[in-house]
Amino acid sequence: MYGGVFAFNRESDVMKILYVSGMYPTPKFPQKGIFSHEQVKALKKRGVDIDVVVPYTFYDREIESEYWDYEGVNIRYIKYFKIPGTADFHRSGKALFHSLNRNLDLESYDIYHADAALPVGQAVMYAAKKYNKKYIIHGHGLDVFLDVSYKDKKNCNKIVDASKEVYANADAFIGVSQKVVDNVLERLDISGKTYVAYNGVDVENFYPETHENEKIQIISVGNLIPLKGHDYTLRALKVLNDKYPNKFCMKLLGRGYLEQNLKDLALELGLDDIVEFVGYIPYDKLASEVRKGDIFVLPSYYEALGCVYLEAMACGLPSVGCKNNGIDEIIEDGVDGFLIDVKNVDQIVESAEKLMDNNVRSEMAKKARAKVESNYTWDASAKVVEDIYRKLFTV
Predict the structure, then answer these.
(1) Residue 8: how many CB atoms within 10 A of its CB?
(2) What percent of the residues of the chain are helix, what percent strand, and what percent coil, each to the nearest 5?
(3) Starting from the edge strand earliest in sequence, which strands make up the sheet with 275-279, in order?
(4) Is residue 69 part of a domain?
(5) 6 within a domain of the structure (yes/no)
(6) Backbone φ, ψ for residue 359 (5° rounding)
């Protein structure tokens, strides 16, 4: 199986999927793109024959081995040529296609599944044209045309055009929320081949736990970057601490370049004794940390969905998220959590004040858990994706 070109013996009526992802765990960073891995695991449990390939550039030092068997998923890492920086990003999929074509038996697959437009989507587009196959693009972020990420780059328009070509030629586009799908449809008419497959949560790992904290503990999980809105949570905590001394504390789980800025802000606000910066938490330890909390707050203002909200809800934590983001399709305001306006400290405070009532918090916790358990498991997500595969396979 390993070495040279992949080749498989398969029955002609058995659907075979190639999953190509630039956001997938590596031995050095097993939490990277964990949502992709969880979905692949769920697809495999459903009996889908799926192989995972993770491309990386020749100058990437993160990958040290070509193969990794991780939690029952065989992952192959394939190197390709790309000029450092973004100069050739709009056409780097062609180089990736040639690398995939050299190393894989691309013709043996029925459907190619890529987790972004560039470069992986562009690569599978070329593969699909060459071998007359179907391909799917799976949008995990709101920046579907990449003109937010690359707005200051000279070739931004070329990146947008390349992305549009990939979406236009795809046999299906999957978004992790309706907002992701709408972001494509606003500028490109691919109606009739769009689907929503919400991410899920492992409800056997993320579950509620009875506990009593001396203070109401706010939990927040996310990279320490601007769009996560951690500074607004800290400012809300300042208001709460002034109004209700010794009633609240906070744990912030994550890492990022704003860590020192946020620590400085906590010190400036006089919160350094009630805010704990936990840093990086391995995914297998995350659930135990989240379930110790009472309220989950993440006022992220550019979020396609946010698995962490689902994980917190599965642990029985009422969650506070922002309107006009993917999570507002799941949280029902005032029922199993709260939806607030972006960058609104006062509304974070108001939400937390309502959740000071133990009965309110307990009732919301039960409803949050029940909603996730019924509708947002990884198996439920995988079933939607599998149904799309089968629809394309039989057409």
Answers:
(1) 12
(2) 40, 20, 40
(3) 275-279, 248-253, 216-221, 295-297, 319-322, 337-340
(4) yes
(5) no
(6) -65, -40
Tell me the pLDDT tens digit for each residue of 248-268: 999 999 999 999 999 999 999
3-state secondary structure of 321: strand
Question: Residue written as tokens 């938490």?
Answer: 281
CB burial readout 108-120, b (16+ within 10 A) else e: bbbbbbbbbbbbb
SS3 234: helix
Is-contact 217 293, C-beta < 8 A? yes
What's the pLDDT tens digit per position in 311-342?
Answer: 999 999 999 999 999 999 999 999 999 999 99
Count of positions (residues) in the chain: 395
* Bridge partners (DSSP) listed for residue 338: 320
Query: Which distant-in-sequence residues (6+ apart) come within 8 Å of 324 by Cβ?
Result: 179, 342
Distance CA 173, CA 195 (A): 6
pTM listed for this prediction:
0.93
Give the structural domain span for 107. Answer: 16-200+378-394
Q: In which element (H, E) is residue 51 found?
A: strand 49-57
Same domain, 368 and 267: yes
Q: How far apart are CA 263 and CA 278, in angstroms?
A: 11
Structure tokens at 5: 């070109």
